[in-house]
Amino acid sequence: MRFWLSLSCLAVLIALAGCTARSGASGAARPAATPPAPPPEPPPPPEPPQAPQPLPEGPEDNCVTIHSGECIPAPQFNGMATELSADYAADSNFEAQWGLHAINAHLAYGHVNLLEGPDAAPGEGVTIGVIDTGIDDEHPIFEGKTIHKEFLFGVEQETGESFSHGTAVASIAAGAQTDNPNAPHGVAWGADLAVWAIPLGDPDNVYDPITLEELAEDDAGWVELFQPVFDWRAAGNQLDILNLSFGYEGLINQYTEEDLRANFSQAIDILAQTDAREKTILVWAAGNQNGDLCGAGVPNCVDGRIEAVSVGILPGLLAYMEELQGHSIAVVALQPDGGAIADFSNRCGIAADHCIAAPGDDVVVAFFGRESGEPGIRRYLPGGGTSFAAPMVSGGLAIMKQLFRDQLLNEELVSRLFLTADSTGIYADRDVYGNGRMDLGAATSPVGVLDVPITTGLATAAHASLASTGLRMGAAFGDGLAAAFDGDELMALDDFGAPFWYELDSFAATTDGPAMSARLRTFLGPGTGLAAVGGGGPGLTALGVSGSVLRMPTAAGNGHLALAEGAVAVNAAHGGGFSAMAFTTGPLRPAMPAAGAALAWQPGDLPVGFRAGWISERETMLGSLGQGAFGNLSAGTAFVGFDGSLGLGGWRFGAGGEFGMANPVAHGGMIREISALMTSTFAVHATRGFERAGSLSFSLSQPLRVENGWAALTVPSARTKAREVVHSALRADLAPGERQLDLAAQWNRALPFGELRLGAIWSHWPGHRDVLGPQVALLSGWRWTF
Fold first, then answer.
1. Going by DSSP bridges, is the β-strand pair 694-708/651-667 parallel, antiparallel, or unpaired?
2. 347 and 308 in contact (C-beta within 8 Å)?
3. Inter-residue contact 419 to 436 (CB < 8 Å)
């Protein structure tokens, strides 16, 4: 237990923070047995030194899809996040901690809300580890929070006889929201805690760097310290973040890699976590040595004060040791006014590549200790030190861990934290600020263009832009596919490989059946065309060949031929009651090309006719259009139909119907297979003419509807830490849940010039969907041919 023996006379291992009031030139803040009275109110939060980094604006590919599935342009997403974050920023617990605003934590909360849902508490489901003096788990700021505690080297539960440094540190990382308006909440106020209590000494403002001999004596003790922590992790407890707000006196630049490996090898080995399945992120306080008293001849001593040009020895190990890089972070402290480096804080120096800056001066912490001679006081006080900057980072990492659902490697979280830091303005000075000021708003936003990976490996996956991804379903499908997608998610990846999830059903747009323009064409159409080919196609009453533009005049959508609306048609008729038609959309409808043919037979004087046809859709499937990750769709559809009429009591009654089978093909996207689709449409009608009152007609019809069929999809739903994409297999029923029925009435009256028409259509379950109530359309018009 040499580590404990070293700690028992500890002038070298110290807590790197305190709760005393500070002035700008007094050096590092230190723990005090009797803290001064707090100010009447916490200082107002200053503006961040640099505006948050928004998503890039410009091309439509920068559209961002929020949790509801709606894809909105980047400027709008930034606006929504800012508006939502304003509610968090206006909370009294948030306002009590200036550092939360400085790191754009409110924007991170807004992103968690937008991307994970409004009920997700920042950091929820993540445990932050803390090695420190211990924790007062009865403090109000930890109410309702799960806290695992262990006591090492003979340390006992803190009683409040002295300032609890660990309580203060833990409150910044994960303190809960309270009813006290002067109490700040932690960065990740939804996270839980695991605390290992160790004995820590008090600094004395004198720079007295640890010697290599003392390091060698303490070397084995670091194994005794970290082994219980990593054993707890190995027992199945998740420990991805470990806050370490303590350290030795000594600047890393005053030691060599060779000397450190020779005298501190066991500590380096256990911190490297070589055998860990995934390494815990070590978040180190950089040190408070700047401005400490120093003697003549001490390196970096200027006018009797140390210039801490680099981080301390423990956080600085990563500057030399490659095995510590990627999962270790050194954190320097910022002050409120302007957000510059705090006077007491070490600079990043030679550890700049692995260093970041966060608020650490004049931050409000949970206090537990002695005040005015009375122990066990619980309250909130301002304090300063890199000890309090480190848990800002630890809490931020917990939010990132939550947002990305533990699918990023811890090393990827560290890299993302560095890459999204604000490195503009004063933060461009890497020697001081390393990677810059931590920006949680940027770290929790999609970076660059979001892509949907269609195949496996992240580096080699075929992908499609999320902004272009969608499936516009034809009216015949109603809400069948959207209902089948309900509850499923689609994953997209940003430029750094971070996953974001969206509701899959929101990418399936539905169509509300025949458009009003089609209804108007039917309403004002001639009303006497031959119904044998497509139910209202061009009249074929004589021998010969003619050309025309195919239109769909019936309220029922004209059955299957509606899929080729606007096509150019060639018609032919034979005196034996046969007629034929070939058609193509050609260049008239390049986005949804279709071609086909139809035959009709009206046998003699029988009141019934028959028809059959084939339609080839090259870019659509029964009017459905896939884009982006849904790939391309096509279909060939065969249909048969009948129609007939008879007179009875002055009325003319008629009926018609079609039945079809589509053979779809899907390629280049998430849809792997689509079964044959059975379709139907029908109409019954009655018409009567009156000698002096025009004509009156009624009809009941069903637009084209898919009766059965299914689609099989493989949807990207997650990514692994080995950077492989996980796909979920889905089988979606394509038949809609409801059936649209249209009841129509129409009155026509001949006038000296033209014809007056009045009509009404009542639709039940319009669009074959149950989300819309019955709809009524009233129509009126005047038809004049010349």
1. unpaired
2. yes
3. no
Cα 608 from chain centroid? Answer: 58
Reading the block at residue 492, the tokens are: 């997209």
Residue 341 DSSP code: B
Beta strand 192-197 with 281-285 is unpaired
Q: Quick: pLDDT tens for 278-337.
A: 999 999 999 999 999 999 889 999 999 999 999 999 999 999 999 999 999 999 999 998
pLDDT at 469 over 80: yes
Whether 352 and 346 have beta carbons less than 8 Å apart is answered as no
pLDDT at residue 77, as a whole number:
67
Question: Do the Cβ atoms of 148 and 135 come closer than 8 Å?
Answer: no
One-letter amino acid for residue 646 of the chain? L
Q: How far apart are CA 171 and CA 191, in angstroms?
A: 11
By DSSP bridging, strand 192-197 and strand 127-132 are: parallel
Those residues with Cβ within 8 angstroms of residue 361's Cβ, 6 or more apart along the chain or in another chain: 22, 29, 333, 334, 335, 336, 342, 344, 345, 384, 385
Nearest one of 110, 56, 52, 80 to 494, comparing CA atoms: 56
Is 93 strand, coil or helix?
helix
> Could you give the residue ranges of the DSSP H alpha helices within 137-264?
165-174, 212-234, 257-263
For position 85, what pLDDT does the model report? 86
Residue written as tokens 């600094």?
203
d(CA 333, CA 358): 5
Q: How far is CA 758 from CA 184, 694, 747, in A?
A: 69, 11, 5
Q: Is the pLDDT of residue 273 over 90?
A: yes
- Residue pair 599/447 in contact (Cβ under 8 Å)? The answer is no
Taking the CB of residue 754, how many other CB atoms lie within 10 A of it?
13
Gyration radius from the chain CA atoms: 37
Token pair for 721: 């830490």
The DSSP symbol for 206 reads: B
- In this prediction, residue 755 has a pLDDT band, given cuts at 50, 70 and 90, of confident
Count how many residues are written for the chain: 786
* Range in 146-150, 361-365, 377-381, 520-524 with the lowest mean pLDDT: 520-524
Distances (CA, A) of 736 to 214, 437, 770: 76, 52, 9
Q: Contact, 653 vs 646, CB < 8 A? A: yes
Cα–chain center distance at 252: 40
DSSP 289: -
Residue-wise pLDDT tens digits, 631-649: 999 999 999 999 999 989 8
Longest Cα–Cα distance of the chain, Å, equals 122
Distance CA 433, CA 436 (A): 5
Q: Where are the beta strands (DSSP E) in 59-177?
A: 64-65, 71-72, 127-132, 147-151
Do 716 and 490 touch, CB atoms closer than 8 A? yes
For 458-493, letters b (16+ CB in 10 Å) and e give beebebbbbbebbbbbbbbbbbbbbbbbeeebbbbb
Question: C-alpha angle 172/174/180, rounded to 5°?
Answer: 75
Contact indicator for 747, 695 with CB cutoff of 8 Å: yes
Retrieve residue 470's tokens.
Answer: 């969608």
* Sign for the pseudo-dihedral over CA of 624, 625, 631, 634: positive
Could you count the other beta carbons within 10 Å of the beta carbon of residue 511?
A: 18
Helices 386-403 & 105-116 angle (0-180, nearest 10): 10
Q: Which are the contacts of 323, defined by CB distance < 8 A and separation ≥ 6?
A: 268, 272, 274
Q: Which two tokens stand for residue 260?
A: 């450190």
pLDDT tens digit sequence for 480-515: 888 889 889 899 999 999 999 888 888 888 876 655
Q: What is the rounded CA–CA span in Å between residue 112 and residue 11? A: 43
Other beta carbons within 10 angstroms of residue 346's beta carbon come to: 35
Is residue 383 within 8 A of residue 168, CB to CB? The reply is yes
Crossing angle of helices 410-419 and 386-403, rounded to 10°: 110
Distances (CA, A) of 176 to 122, 141, 363, 763: 10, 5, 16, 54
